[in-house]
Amino acid sequence: xxxxxxxxxxxxxxxxxxxxxxxxxxxxxxxxxxxxxxLITAGSNGALVTSVVIVAEVTQTADKxxxxxxxxxxxxxxxxxxxxMPAYTQAATDAQGSVTMIDKLDPNAAVRLAGTDVLGxxxxxxxxxxxxAEYMDY
Length: 138
Fold this sequence. Notes:
By secondary structure, this protein is an all-beta fold. It has a single domain (13-137), classed as Jelly Rolls. Helices cover 0% and strands 45% of the residues. It has no helices and nine strands. It has strands at residues 13-20, 37-41, 47-56, 63-70, 78-85, 98-102, 111-113, 118-123, 129-137. The strands form two sheets. Strands 1, 3, 6, 7 and 9 form a five-stranded antiparallel sheet that branches. Strands 2-8-4-5 form a four-stranded antiparallel sheet, with no helix packed on it. The model has no long low-confidence stretch (mean pLDDT 84).
């Protein structure tokens, strides 16, 4: 993005999702051996990630999810946030278990990505879950 005195505002809201099937990813924590699944690739001027929510899709034990950033979409991955999804037993009369990684009601929780940065996610128990994000490119 060229430097100017004009204000820069986030543009059209977008959504992204990653679904983990059982045994879709290793339980290893090292992104050097198991690449995180890409959730968002920022546009050329960057992006503002305003919400990330994880939803359990089956009965499960506790499951750890980690958000990673890969600057400029190449090289090393850096952990920026992790959460634990509590154990959840699926039933027809219950709401799906979920946990919020980035709360859209808290403007200070938003994550700003530089141009072409990649936001990735890993999970560490081989059970089904879905990760949903809301963001805006600049």
